């Protein structure tokens, strides 16, 4: 599985040739790319409707939009996407060679458009190359994109033990989401091999040194490796 971070919460995920773009937002200081520079993905996974997560959804009109039914309906109306898959918290859908499970995120939601829309609950996604079951599969490769969230016990009680992510992308910016120390607790609870910080340095309120996150992870006693990517850099999860 190839994981490419384009800054903020924007990830391009390749699962055996099936491509997923999560939360397209390229107006951030970590990327040198414009949306036109990015190969159109098969699917757009949207965690919630804040502008810094859906701003460039319209630049990928051929992608199938995946999100809560409320959010996919809004994006279809706003950006003109014809293909959508509405799913909801706890559900798993098969997208090409990927299995995508939606999980809750503790956050707010809204469209910032001046119009009233019900855009559903904020979410995160667990992306795997095998279908999740209660039988542990050591051969599977699984990536958790937590979305915009605070620390929540579901990471310890559900996501970690049952969805078994190998790597997690977690917000560390503080102010609007978890900061480094709470994100480090999430790493420990999730019991992942790799922790990848995201959602930081985009705006002044969320400026962070990712080394603070790495230090906090070590302080939990977790053996996870903190992987700090440069913008537009790819990490191969095997």
TrEMBL record:
SMART domains: Lactamase_B. InterPro entries: Metallo-B-lactamas, RibonucZ/Hydroxyglut_hydro, UPF0173, UPF0173_UPF0282_UlaG_hydrolase. Keywords: Hydrolase. Residues 7-199 form the Metallo-beta-lactamase domain. It comes from the Archaea. GO terms for molecular function: hydrolase activity. Pfam families: Lactamase_B_3 (PF13483). Belongs to the UPF0173 family. NCBIfam families: PRK00685.1. This is UPF0173 metal-dependent hydrolase ACFQHK_04795. It comes from Halomarina ordinaria.
């Amino acid at each position: 599985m190839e994981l490419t971070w384009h800054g903020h919460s924007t990830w391009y995920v390749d699962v055996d040739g099936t491509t997923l773009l999560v939360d397209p937002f390229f107006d951030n200081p970590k990327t040198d790319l414009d949306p036109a520079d990015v190969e159109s993905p098969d699917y757009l996974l949207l965690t919630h409707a804040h502008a810094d997560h859906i701003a460039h959804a319209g630049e990928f009109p051929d992608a199938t939009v995946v999100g809560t039914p409320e959010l996919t309906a809004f994006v279809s109306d706003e950006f003109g996407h014809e293909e959508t898959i509405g799913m909801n918290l706890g559900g798993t859908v098969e997208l090409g060679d990927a299995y995508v499970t939606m999980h809750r995120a503790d956050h707010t939601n809204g469209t910032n458009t001046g119009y009233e829309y019900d855009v559903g609950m904020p979410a995160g996604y667990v992306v795997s190359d095998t279908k999740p079951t209660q039988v542990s599969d050591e051969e599977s490769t699984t990536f958790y994109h937590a979305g915009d969230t605070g620390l929540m016990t579901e990471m310890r009680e559900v996501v970690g033990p049952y969805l078994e992510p190998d790597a997690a992308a977690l917000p560390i910016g503080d102010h609007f989401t978890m900061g480094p120390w709470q994100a480090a607790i999430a790493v420990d609870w999730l019991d992942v091999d790799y922790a990848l910080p995201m959602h930081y340095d985009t705006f002044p309120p969320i400026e962070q040194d990712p080394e603070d996150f790495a230090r906090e992870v070590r302080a939990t006693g977790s053996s996870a490796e903190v992987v700090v990517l440069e913008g537009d850099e790819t990490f191969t999860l095997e």
